[in-house]
Amino acid sequence: MYTYRSVQNSRYCFVHNAKKQNFLEDAEYQVLSTWFDYSEKNLDIDLDLIVYLKTTPQVVWDRMAKRGRAEESEVPLEYLQQVHDSYENWLSAPNVGCEVLTIDADRNLGCVKDDLQRYTYKILGGNHTN
C-alpha cells in the first residue's frame, strides 16, 4: 500500500499544526506560506482527488506501538490528535478544491484494501483492473 502526500496536506495539516503548537517562528511560517503561494500560482499542483484514510488517533497510536518502530516510539497521542484535527478541519472546509473520498481506516487492513479496490476507478482516474 502506498501513501502519497501533497503540498496541500503539508501546508494545511503539518505546517499549520507546527505553527499552532509554536514549533515554528512567525518568520519560518511566513517563508513556508509564501513558498506554497508561489508554488500554487506558478506550478500545476491542483488536486483532483484526495483519498482520506480516516483513522482515529487512538487507533493510529495503537498501530504504531504494535509496529514497534524506534522512530515512532516517542510520538505522543496528543500530537496524533492535533494532526487528526488539522486534517478534519482542512478536509471539511468548503474550499478544499477537489473531491474528498473518505475511507474508514479504523477497520482491518482487508476492509480498507477492499474499499481501495472498489474505488480504483476513481483513484486512478479510469478503467483499471488488477
UniProtKB/TrEMBL annotation:
PANTHER family: DEOXYNUCLEOSIDE KINASE, DEOXYNUCLEOSIDE KINASE-LIKE PROTEIN. One of its GO terms (cellular component) is mitochondrion. Gene3D superfamilies: P-loop containing nucleotide triphosphate hydrolases. InterPro entries: Deoxyribonucleoside_kinase, DNK_dom, P-loop_NTPase. Residues 5-111 form the Deoxynucleoside kinase domain. GO terms for molecular function: deoxynucleoside kinase activity. This is (diamondback moth) hypothetical protein.
